[in-house]
Task: structure prediction
Amino acid sequence: MPDDILALWPLAPAAETDWLAELADDDGLTGYEVPGRPDAAWVLGGMYERGPAAGDSVNDGQGRDEHPGPGWERLRWAELASRLGDPVVPQDVYPCFRCFPSTKSRSHLLGTMEWPAEGSLDRPTWDQLIRFLTAHSPGGADTPCLAYYNPLVMQDFDTRHVRSGRLGAAGALFDNPDVLYTPTNLWAADRSWVVLTDYDLWGSKVCGPRPLVEALLADPEIEAVRLPWTT
Result:
């Protein structure tokens, strides 16, 4: 990590992740519940549609995404689902490439839209989510947090990469040039909320207090859905 990011997010003991491992199931944390926080929403990754005057996307499909650039417009999952007659997220499926089954070939969409990044939120969605977490954390921007990166992301299976920092500095985690993904898990040190971004998925699961989850679901800008605990 660059020195400025290291200063904001120094290494933390690997044991900080033990409580998450205890909650893991066969899906590798995708089915966990946080004791005392029985609510969750899936924040859906940004999907974009090319406008008539749009240039090439600035993204290369190799990890987290920026906004694609001028002329590209956010395409809400609900809008695309309505166009196609598909559910926003099919039954027994997490937000991923298996969504929108009527576009299995998707060849007719090449060049006209950009699917969400796998295993990472895009910058606009990440920034929106951090604002929600800040508003619903008693410590606000000063809330102590921890971030964990899956070994698949780090290409290092011998070390648990855990870092500690303040919620208000979470933007630095996105800007780290040495890691092409947002953290696999981000959580408040008091464990009041936790975010999961799975390596293969197009969204992040936010588990925490009901007011936080309800605010995510009700907001007209960020796009979030509630799914069953087990699928």
The two ends are 37 Å apart (CA to CA). The beta strands are 40-44, 48-50, 72-74, 113-114, 144-149, 161-166, 185-188, 194-197, 203-207, 224-225.
